[in-house]
């Protein structure tokens, strides 16, 4: 049974950093692409970043240069390093597992989410 458990969200000030993590279980983590989505109040859920099984990364335009996605296959954990946070980054952040090793379209599973709030 696939499980994704996010942690590490919180309340920060503008310009500060945060590093939520996603602990995965129930599948061979190293063989699948992982990613992050977010949903702000009143908005649709949007894609943030993805990382393939080989470490190739992709970012949404809004976060490129500020966020870094990484993975630790030994710990079956994905991280989202968020720097220079802005109020518009406030959202619930969801970890996702994709169906394949090197694709970022078909999501197999969403985690329960972790709240990130950036205060000005």
What does this structure look like?
This protein is mainly β. The protein contains no helices and eleven strands. The chain has strands at 3-7, 10-13, 21-25, 34-39, 46-51, 57-59, 67-72, 77-82, 91-98, 107-110, 114-119. Strands 2, 4, 5, 6, 9, 10 and 11 form a seven-stranded mixed β-sheet that branches. It has a four-stranded antiparallel β-sheet with strand order 1-3-8-7, with no helix packed on it. The termini are far apart. The model has no long low-confidence stretch (mean pLDDT 97).
How are helices and strands ordered from N to C?
A: EEEEEEEEEEE
Describe the biggest sheet? 7 strands, mixed
Described by the principal axes of the CA atoms, the overall outline is: globular
How far apart the termini lie comes to 40 Å
The number of helical elements comes to 0
Counting DSSP E segments of at least 2 residues, the number of strands comes to 11
Q: What is the helical fraction, as a range of percent?
A: under 10%
Structural class by helix and strand composition: mainly beta
* Average residue-wise pLDDT: 97
Flag low-confidence runs: none
Rg, alpha carbons: 13 Å
Q: Beta-sheet strand percentage?
A: over 45%
């Amino acid at each position: 049974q696939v499980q994704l458990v996010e942690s590490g969200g919180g309340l920060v000030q503008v310009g500060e950093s945060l590093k939520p993590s996603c602990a995965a279980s129930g599948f061979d983590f190293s063989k699948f692409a992982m990613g992050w989505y977010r949903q702000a109040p009143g908005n649709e859920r949007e894609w943030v970043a993805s990382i393939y099984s080989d470490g190739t990364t992709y970012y949404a335009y809004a976060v490129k240069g500020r966020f870094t996605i990484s993975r630790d296959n030994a710990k079956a954990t994905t991280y989202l390093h968020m720097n220079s946070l802005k109020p518009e980054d406030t959202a619930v952040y969801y970890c996702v597992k994709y169906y394949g090793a090197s694709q970022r379209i078909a999501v197999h599973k969403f985690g329960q989410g972790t709240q990130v709030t950036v205060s000005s």
